Amino acid sequence: MAAPTAAGNKPKSILIINPNTTQAMTDALRPLIDSLNIKDTTFQYFTAPKGVPSINNAADAALSAQECLDPLKWEYGKHDAYLICCYSAHPLVEQTRTEQVTYAARRRRTTVPPVAGIFEASLVEALKSAPKFGIVSTGAQWEGLMNQAVFAELGEDVAMERYEGTETTGFDANELHVAPAEVVNASMKEATKRLLKRGVGAICLGCAGMVGLESVVQEACIEALGETEGRKIKIINGVVSGIRLLRGEL
């Protein structure tokens, strides 16, 4: 439980939203967020009640957003910020922002809770962390989708200069923790090393389901570059980036 602030104010609340139906993916986020040891903020969790177990393309993203919008309305007014935990240009991010503006206006509230997606948050951190970055994602279909999303988010000039592309593992999000660990880890390492050959200094984990795989990416960096240089590579978890971004806006 979060402690009261020094001024005795009520702790802030952030709703962590998993827009797919896989409860295990939501549950995997809890120890990660607990490990941040944030004392002045509470975290609540939402898993899509209907939709898709894994968001593997733009159609899945659209369907998952549609299935989340109405259930999420029960959460409005209860939280100070909202984090959408799907690593994509997920439509639920902008839809929830619009909903929050409408909700605040109807109740004549002067403040609108911030909403962020883990994709956009990770890009903010990547640009601060290294001259060049890349993304390790899941299925091969995400290579093109990520390229489009990064260029749309950053603009062509910045993306061309700073973004070195997306490499994929071949596993969908809901397979990462059920497939044999040695196979998943080997695929993660191969994707990481392909990015390192392009000179990246930061690697974004391109899926909320990659929680716990940071150490595998770091091992790949050390194997490819040696202990000293390998540990210099910034490994970015979008969930952590999103929490930092939102707390900075509260």
Describe the structure.
The chain is built from 10 helices and 8 strands. It is an alpha/beta fold and 250 residues long. It has 2 domains: 13-118 and 241-247, 3-Layer(aba) Sandwich (Rossmann fold); 119-238, Rossmann fold. The strands form 2 sheets. A 4-stranded parallel β-sheet has the order 2-1-3-4, with helices on both faces. Strand 3, helix 3 and strand 4 (115-117) form a beta-alpha-beta unit. Helix 2 (58-72) runs parallel beside helix 3. The relative contact order is 0.15. The model has no long low-confidence stretch (mean pLDDT 93).
> Order of strands side by side in the largest beta sheet?
2-1-3-4
Number of strands: 8
CATH topology title of the largest domain: Rossmann fold
Helix content: 40-55%
Radius of gyration: 18 Å
Protein name: Hydantoin racemase
GO molecular function: amino-acid racemase activity
Family: Belongs to the HyuE racemase family.
Organism: Dissoconium aciculare CBS 342.82
